[in-house]
Amino acid sequence: MSPQLAPAPLRDAWVGVPIALLLLLVLTSFTLFSHRSGIHLLVLERQQETLKAARTAAAALTDGAALPAGLRAAHPAARRLVLADGHGQITATAGEPLDGAFAAPLDGTLPTGPVAAGPRADVPEVSAFVPFGDGTAGGWLRLDVGASALASQLRTLTVLTWTALGASAALLLWLLLFLRQLLRPYERLLRRARELGGEPGDDESAFLLATLERALGAGRPEHSEDGMWAARSEDGMHARGDDGAPAERSEELAVLERTLAPSLESGLLLLDREARVLALNPTGAALLGPPPPPRTPLAELLAGQPALMALLAPAVAAGSGLQRQECEVLVAGEAHRLGLTVTPLRRPGGDLLGFLVLFADLTVSEREEHQARLAESLAHLGELAAGVAHELRNGLATLGGYVALLERDPGGPSAAEYVAELRAETQHLQRVVTDFLGFTHPGSTRLAPVDLVELARHAVADPALGGKARLLGAEAPAPAVLPGDRELLERALRNLLHNAVEAQQRNDATTAVEVETAWRDERFEIAIRDRGPGLSPEVRRRLFQPFASDRPGGVGLGLALAHRIVTLHGGTLAVEGRAEGGTVARITFPADRFAG
């Protein structure tokens, strides 16, 4: 297609693109020349300024003044003042030494009147020449003023001018030479569209889009009345399928299979709306067996997996999904735990396309989780055994020491004291064993309604506390009756109260431990506040672990036992530091744990 006979858009491209680039070249040239003119105006202004300063310096010499030693008086940026006779021979110089002849900026020729020259790209100075004196004793004065910035701009302007103009001209030439190559695909597409029928008219783009729509419409799938997918051709309708049989796999399901199957690391099973297998990826085949032929019934694929079939069959029949279900499957005669999700696939209108089943083998992860729990349990057991052994070893060492002392002097004056120490150490060991047994087995839970406010009041009144604890508020704002074991709950509460009182004694606090019961955000809370020394970093790190104690003579099982009892009753126990000093222990039970 020649440019002369081209339709409107092609003709516009042949004419418009070069004109646009030519306009760009003109605009670039105008901008560069405007910049060049501005710089030349700055040069002229600097020359006039230097010439004026030179005239002033020449007038001073006429009045008989000597050549100034400081050049600042002549001009702030002056570099040198040079005097020469009428033949250009230098008679005096001030400032930087002169490199070259007196009239070198004027190509070696003295002027006939006042004149200024420079700067140039290679000479960053403005030189002004002014005559002075009379005919017998006169001569010429030369003033050189620095102009480095102007010289730099002149150098940049030269490079920029040649670069911009050269690049614009090269781009214009390249486009003129290769525009035909750029438009050739469009010409071929337009020619092909014309061969299919019709004329483009004035709007070639609309003509091409209409031709493309017709081509796509000829192969677009349609849904027939019997639910089968078919493709339209010039001969009518024919079903699509690799084997010539009626194909019910829609284009959407085919795209889904091609997209997901190669990239998923979990198993993928794709079913049509009649529960027939459309796709089974390699990961799924490793668990369920080799992929069956297309449109194999699901029951046939899962004939050897009754548990999995029992989960999938109701969901597929109802057209619903399953979320995070688990079942056992047999893989090479070995039972594996499978986790799966079933998602119905629907069109925007709600029509059911099929089902996407994603599943994964949980056997390895469950085994690893079991091993991790076992290792954690063994670690806790080791800590418990080490704590008990430590307490027993220290106690037995103390008992052995006092027995040795009694053997040396059975009837001595200190025998009664040794016996008393033996009895105290024996009681301590008995307490260690009792607390340890209470932690490992708190006791059989006997559920009965427990009024937590009354329980707190009874625990605060324990004579062993010596009146060093008090209950704030007489009653809770609403009933707080919890189904639980009263003895176990009271034991946990007393352990916390004894710890709080002993902490205050170690800190020489004179106030009583405060106990408050209240409903907060649909949770019932018992708060025990003390003004003791607070929790040490070591105890805070091992909070609620057995044998974690910073109290002298403490076993370290009271707090762990209280936590165990509260947890058994569905509550939580938290111990925190207070801003004003001390700690607060909070026992909290959610509202759904209470009767009524």
Describe the structure.
The structure is a single chain. With 596 residues, this protein is α+β, with helices and mostly antiparallel strands. Helix content is 45%, strand content 22%. A six-stranded antiparallel β-sheet has the order 11-10-9-14-13-12, sandwiched between helices. A five-stranded antiparallel β-sheet has the order 2-1-5-4-3, covered by helices on one side. Helix 9 packs parallel to helix 13 and helix 10 packs across helix 11. The N terminus is likely disordered.
Give the gist of this structure.
The protein is of the alpha+beta class. The chain has helices spanning 8-62, 148-195, 204-219, 251-260, 282-288, 298-301, 306-318, 363-408, 415-440, 452-460, 486-506, 537-541, 558-568, and strands at residues 78-84, 90-95, 115-117, 125-132, 139-146, 221-223, 229-233, 236-239, 267-272, 276-280, 296-297, 322-331, 334-346, 352-361, 448-451, 469-472, 481-484, 513-519, 523-529, 572-577, 583-590.
- What's the mean pLDDT score? 76
Largest sheet composition: 6 strands, antiparallel
Uncertain stretches of 5 or more adjacent residues? 1-6, 219-249
Multimerization status: single chain
The backbone outline, from C-alpha atoms, is flat
* Alpha-carbon distance between the two ends: 91 Å
Q: Which strand order do you get reading across the main beta sheet? A: 11-10-9-14-13-12
How much of the sequence lies in strands comes to 15-25%
Secondary-structure class = alpha+beta
Helix content: 40-55%
Tally the helices: 13
Please provide the count of β strands: 21
Rg from C-alpha positions?
Answer: 51 Å
